[in-house]
Amino acid sequence: LEVMPKTGRTHQIRVHLADIGHPILKDPLYGKKRAAGHQLLQAFYLKFKHPLTQREYSFELPLSERLK
């Protein structure tokens, strides 16, 4: 699943997916029955402009071993 959040809210993806009945696996806050363990969610690419300098930053990570 690829999602593109429109704001910087940290829980936006989690709460919207849970609301439509598809929570992130093992999400302890929004998952089914308050699942134990770590949520299986990873951002592999992040890009933003610094609000003061307008300098653009981007970061990219390989998929974690837990998600492979």
Tell me about this structure.
- It is globular and about 45 Å long.
- The protein is 12% helix and 15% strand.
- The model has no long low-confidence stretch (mean pLDDT 78).
- It has a two-stranded antiparallel sheet.
- A hairpin with a 6-residue loop joins strand 1 (45-49) and strand 2 (56-60).
- It contains 1 helix and 2 strands; from the N terminus they run H-E-E.
- The protein is of the alpha+beta class.
**Apparent shape:** globular
Low-pLDDT residue spans: none
* Average pLDDT reading: 78
Distance between the termini: 14 Å
Q: What is the count of β-strands?
A: 2
The major beta sheet can be summarized as: 2 strands, antiparallel
Structural class: alpha+beta
Helix content: 10-25%
The percent range for strand residues is 5-15%
| Adjacency order of strands in the biggest sheet | 1-2
Rg from alpha-carbon coordinates: 14 Å
Give the SSE string: HEE
Q: What's the tally of helices? A: 1
